[in-house]
Amino acid sequence: MEKDDARLKPISSGTVLDHLPAGTALKILKILNLQKPENAVTVAINTESKSGKEGKKDLVFIEGRILNKQEYDKIGLIAEGSTVNIIKDKKVKKKIKVELPEKASGLFECLNPKCISNHEGLPTKFSLKKDPLRAKCFYCEKIMNEQDIFKAIK
User: Fold this and answer.
1) Torsion of the alpha carbons at 60, 63, 67 and 71, rounded to the nearest 10
2) What are the residues whose beta carbons fall under 8 Å from the beta carbon of 102, sequence distance 6 or more?
3) Neighbours of 22 (CB within 10 A)
4) Residues 46-55: pLDDT tens digits?
5) pLDDT at residue 2, as a whole number
6) Helix (H, G, I), strand (E, B) or coil at 104
7) How open is the CA angle 63-65-66, to the nearest 5 degrees?
8) CA 24 – CA 65 distance, rounded (Å)
9) Do 78 and 27 form a contact (C-beta atoms < 8 A)?
10) pTM of the entire structure?
């Protein structure tokens, strides 16, 4: 990138999601509910990695908002291995490597209409496995695949 080729403006405070697998940024916007007008968000899709080692990647800049643990876990469902950078005063104050959680509580709904979590107001609980991504409901033992999980994210 040449000096005058400024595609992305750094944020002064908030969160930057970096090293997202190419094509996942729009899913991240949806699961974090960032399409609202009050969120200042910049997205880069299929951009070159600075190091060149990763090939293409996505980036999400969220101005003025720090994500919480539950939101990191949601990102981990879609973009394991990505990086969350906490920005304050235009500097990276903290970097967090996003991992797939072993268990998910309250992140998504069980797709089994007969599951007790859908009738009794209980928080959903799942054990998670990767390669390929699967979730098993703690209550009814329904197995959900990656597409099911994405559809069911709250």
Assistant:
1) -40
2) 127, 128
3) 14
4) 998 776 566 8
5) 42
6) strand
7) 130
8) 20
9) yes
10) 0.84
